[in-house]
Amino acid sequence: MSVADEAPRAVVLRLLRLALDDPGAAAQLPVRELDLLLQLLRHVRLHGRFASDLEKVGAFESLPRVAQQQLESILFYADARKRVALWELDRIAWATRDRLDLDLVLMKVCAYILLDLPIAAGRIFADVDLLAKEEQLPEIENVLNRRGWQTRQLSPHDDDYYRLWSHELPPIVHRERDVETDVHHNIVPRTARLKPPGEKLVKNSKLIADSRYRALAEEDLVLNGMVHLMFDSDLAYKLRDLVDIDGMCRYFAERDVDFWDKLTSRADELGLGRPLYYSLRYASRLLGTPIPAEVTGRAEKWAPLFPVRRLMDRLVPLALLPEHPSHPSRSAAVARLLLYMRSHWLRMPPWLLAYHLAYKFYVVRLRGAAKTAEPSG
User: Fold this and answer.
1) So what's the pLDDT on residue 255?
2) Which of 33, 121, 347, 374 maximizes the CB count within 10 A of its CB?
3) How confident is the model at residue 353, as a pLDDT?
4) DSSP string covering 259-304
């Protein structure tokens, strides 16, 4: 089959896998395919990862000059955002210097950066994610508020949503730097069907050398990514999150022969088997993650019913992968809508979901329309 005859989604998956597995070979693609690859990578926010990988293998110079300039710019931006992250962490450490009893456990990108994980390369920092014991959240908020951070002013409904139903405080932003800090007490909302004990995540965290901070334990970092992707997400264009899971599993498994056992045992302990099952299944299928057969077999006990598994096997790749820009897919749009509905169903009981959606409909559609209709001046 010629390239011209290749199905659009097959082209997308082939190019993305090539960029992730063999960036040097990807740099040698014909100009048209290289241009398509860069579009796809930008769409799923993996262009920084690709640029960093090209630097590591010394393949930057083989790119056309225009492509080099695009990727160099994202590396400069990623490096600038990393400095912003490190400075914000430094300032939070300064603000809490008198309260070392407060647990500040890093999650997601800031943890990746301070732990110097390979998946941090080329990553664009967005906000600081902290985990702490639930009873410490008011004091952490108070300390930060006294020292230059401000809790975002929200509507009473949205403020209640964060404080009563969610798993975090309303966003806290420094008034000068406009960098958001999200302080969590768990990795899923209070109303979610999954109920991992947040205090166990804090207790299992590890102190980062020469730092004020702790980080989630390795297996908990991976499980947090799995929950965020397969439980607390609509999966729309979230391939980067699956790539993070793949990268962490490969990295930790190389350094700890007991990693896979720790991961599955921890998922069992925290009640996170279903996100683990889904994440391993699609990491293996889409990214070729090397998962031991016994781990795959162990995860089967968390598999959903066969019809649900078949449906997810159809929907998840459609939602995760970007579409070929010349071939938009109605099926992918439907898959993302269905998975968006699924994510809300998993996070909220029916009564709360109905109330929340009704309120949002009122604010966005009815009250918004009324404001638009008001005469100006």
Assistant:
1) 97
2) 347
3) 72
4) HHHHHHHHHHHHT-HHHHHHHHHHHHHHH-----HHHHHHHGGG--
What's the order of all strands across the beta sheet hosting 206-207?
A: 149-151, 172-174, 180-184, 128-131, 105-106, 214-215, 206-207
Cβ distance 324 to 12 under 8 Å? yes
Q: Which alpha helices (H) appear in the chain, and where do they start and end?
A: 8-21, 23-26, 31-43, 47-57, 65-95, 108-114, 137-146, 156-160, 198-203, 218-230, 239-255, 259-270, 273-287, 293-299, 306-320, 330-347, 350-361, 368-373
CA–CA distance, 20 with 38 (Å, rounded to integer) = 12
Q: Which ranges of 179-272 would DSSP assign to H, the alpha helix?
A: 198-203, 218-230, 239-255, 259-270
Shortest CA distance to 109 belongs to which of 74, 85, 135?
Answer: 85
132-182 pLDDT tens trace:
999 999 999 999 999 999 999 998 888 988 999 899 999 999 999 889 999
What does pTM read for this prediction? 0.92
With b for 16 or more beta-carbon neighbours within 10 A and e for fewer, the 75-104 pattern comes to: beebeebbeebeebbebbeebbeeeeebbb
3 state DSSP class of 96:
coil
- How far is Cα 174 from Cα 93, in angstroms, rounded to an integer? 14
Give me 122's structure tokens: 């080329």
- How far is 210 from 187, CA to CA, in rounded Å? 26
Percent of the chain with pLDDT over 90: 81
- Calculate helix-pair angle for 239-255, 218-230, nearest 10 degrees: 160
What does the block give as tokens for 172? 């806290």
Percent of the chain with pLDDT over 70: 93
**What whole-number distance in Å separates Cα of residue 316 and Cα of residue 322?**
12
According to the model, what pLDDT value does residue 365 have?
Answer: 59
